[in-house]
Design brief:
The complex is a heterodimer. Chain A is built from 15 helices and no strands. Chain A is flat and about 70 Å long. Chain A has helices at residues 15-23, 32-59, 81-89, 92-123, 129-138, 144-157, 165-171, 175-186, 190-198, 203-214, 216-232, 235-240, 249-258, 265-285, 287-297. Chain A is mostly helical. In chain A, helix 2 (32-59) packs across helix 14 and helix 4 (92-123) packs antiparallel against helix 11 (216-232). The longest helix of chain A has 32 residues, at 92-123. By secondary structure, chain B is an all-alpha fold. Chain B has one domain (12-226). Chain B has helices at 13-24, 26-47, 52-77, 87-118, 121-148, 156-169, 172-190, 199-218, 229-239. The chains are: A mainly alpha, B mainly alpha. Chain A binds chain B through residues 2, 4-5, 7-11, 14-17, 19-20, 23, 75-78, 80, 83-84, 87, 92-93, and chain B through 2, 7-8, 13, 46-48, 50-53, 83, 110, 113-114, 117-118, 120, 122, 147, 151, 153-155, 157-159, 161-162, 218-225.
């Protein structure tokens, strides 16, 4: 006997409904006041993002059509030539690699040294620790513009001027990071250390298996801010670096504008776009984690 | 012994009804085929025909007309009264799923241009990644737009995930629909320009034709089928 097929009907429970239920978030009621606040925030957001949009639009326009008044928000006529020209005016990828290398070494190295120093100050009672801490903190009071002169003389004496080492070597000792991590470690109960010690743990075990995992948000926030400061750093590279192939991107961008055979403004805009966009993408991708880690430690850039 | 009824014939019910539904919605499909070309001419005149932004703008401007044609076609296939989402929601679905592949295509064009000028490996990788993402997004869009424009009870995110999973499990339908449209477009560009008018209609019809079998195989419920004209006429005749 042949069974007649059932007429096709819209089932109440299908895979779409199941997926919807599994991924549904709590919807919040929106009040009129909340909507007004949202509108104001969006307006401010547009105002803040408009310079960046303008920059990107100009970088996609032919030089003679840039700086139009009123400003043009659409790249007409469209061209990608400015991006191609960037590589003619500056060793972009070399400088990108320099910036990345410097930022990674500075951030990772400074964090490593800071963690060790902070552990010593927070957990080991040694003679003169308080005085040493005060001396170290006093270094924070001296402006970087003054400190850079003796550092430059020292670097010249050891033959490291115009190398990346002249930038990342002094950056390994970051007094603010040491102070911040010391205070953070002090908030973690000593009873945990003592319990670990009874179980036979040493200093390295306590530091790497206990204190560092418990200080995750603080270390992440310091890493983000350290990387950002190193990536955007201009003053140090300006003093120490002179060869185009050794320069970092911020310095390279300025020499692109002011140096011998200066590039047109739209080419500079294209270079800035190429510098900014990767970081922007990384920030957008990890926005939640970045905001959470910075907010949880109360730090600001 | 069973009586042979149109609905009880073997095969997929959507595919079985598709030729008749296509014929009845052909005026809308013709408009949907011609409109993007008109937009392309206008936008290309303003921005220059080679700019990647042209295709993005053509897609964004043409999306409502394509949606209208697809609504007409699916209206002939399904009984969508009370099920279909509002116009804004349908427009959002159409705009998102049409703009996404075009934006990705524009990005990969940009990356490949920079890679060609600079010889940079990073941009070559980005161009290849952009092309791969474009292809994936096209396959997802082919399934997502027909489903997203008739299901009001789920979010666009859910539609996207389900369409991606469905297309990943049975990719032949979406690939065939896309390849056919691309082939007609290529013939239009290289052989007879008039064929370009058929690119969008063919893509719309094939998308509807492949989306529902692909989605139902994944577990998505088929909407109520619309009564066929012959059965409606028979019923009217019986009443009389």
């Amino acid at each position: 006997m042949k069974v007649l097929p059932q007429p096709a009907t819209m089932r109440t429970e299908d895979v779409l409904v199941a997926l919807e239920k599994s991924g549904r978030r709590k919807s919040r009621k929106r009040s009129p006041g909340g909507i007004v606040v949202d509108v104001v925030l969006v307006a401010f957001g547009i105002m803040m993002v408009s310079p960046l949009v303008w920059l990107i639009v100009q970088s996609l326009t032919q030089p003679e059509f840039a700086f139009a008044s009123p400003p043009s928000w659409v790249p007409v006529p469209f061209t990608l030539q400015n991006f191609a020209d960037v590589f003619e005016y500056m060793p972009f990828f070399q400088q990108f690699g320099n910036s990345l290398l410097l930022a990674v070494i500075s951030t990772a190295g400074a964090l490593l040294f800071s963690v060790f120093a902070a552990y010593a100050f927070a957990r080991i009672d040694f003679r003169g620790s308080r005085i040493l801490m005060v001396i170290m903190l006093s270094a924070l009071m001296v402006p970087a513009q003054l400190v850079i002169i003796p550092i430059f003389i020292m670097m010249r004496q050891v033959g490291l001027v115009d190398t990346l080492a002249s930038l990342w070597l002094p950056a390994l000792i970051n007094v603010f990071q040491i102070f911040f991590l010391t205070q953070y470690f002090k908030t973690i109960p000593r009873e945990l250390d003592e319990a670990a010690r009874i179980d036979g743990a040493g200093h390295f075990w306590i530091l790497f298996r206990m204190l560092i995992p418990l200080s995750g948000p603080a270390i992440a926030a310091l890493a983000i801010l350290g990387f950002e400061a190193s990536w955007n750093g201009y003053f140090g590279p300006l003093i120490f670096l002179s060869s185009p192939e050794n320069m970092t991107l911020p310095l390279g961008l300025v020499t692109l504008q002011n140096g011998f055979g200066a590039a047109p403004a739209v080419v500079v805009f294209a270079a800035i776009t190429m510098v900014v966009l990767p970081l922007l993408v990384v920030f957008l991708a990890f926005q939640r984690q970045i905001v959470e880690s910075v907010a949880s430690t109360g730090l600001k850039g | 012994m069973t009586s042979m009824h149109a609905d009880s014939a073997p095969g997929d019910p959507v595919l079985r009804r598709l030729p008749a539904a296509t014929w009845r919605s052909s005026p809308a499909l013709v408009v949907a085929g011609a409109f993007p070309l008109l937009v392309y001419v206008l936008v290309g005149w303003v921005f220059g025909p080679g700019a990647p932004t042209v295709w993005v703008l053509v897609g964004l401007v043409s999306a409502p007309v394509v949606l209208w044609a697809m609504d007409r076609l699916q209206g002939e296939l399904f009984d969508l009264d009370g099920v279909r989402p509002g116009l804004m929601r349908r427009l959002v679905v159409a705009e998102v799923f049409i703009a996404a592949p075009l934006l990705l295509a524009a990005w990969s064009t940009f990356a490949s241009t920079v890679a060609t000028s600079s010889g940079s490996v990073i941009f070559q990788v980005l161009a290849v990644a952009g092309t791969a993402l474009t292809m994936v997004s096209v396959l997802v869009a082919v399934v997502a737009v027909p489903i997203g424009t008739v299901r009001a009870d789920v979010t666009v995110r859910t539609i996207t995930i389900a369409s991606f999973l469905a297309a990943a499990r049975r990719p032949l339908g979406p690939i065939a629909a896309t390849a056919t449209a691309v082939a007609i477009g290529w013939l239009g560009l290289t052989w007879f320009t008039g064929l370009l008018v058929f690119v969008v209609p063919v893509l719309v019809v094939f998308a509807v034709g492949c989306a529902w079998p692909t989605a139902t195989a994944f577990g998505v419920a088929l909407p109520h089928l619309a009564p066929t004209r012959s059965s409606t006429a028979r019923a009217r005749h019986g009443e009389a």
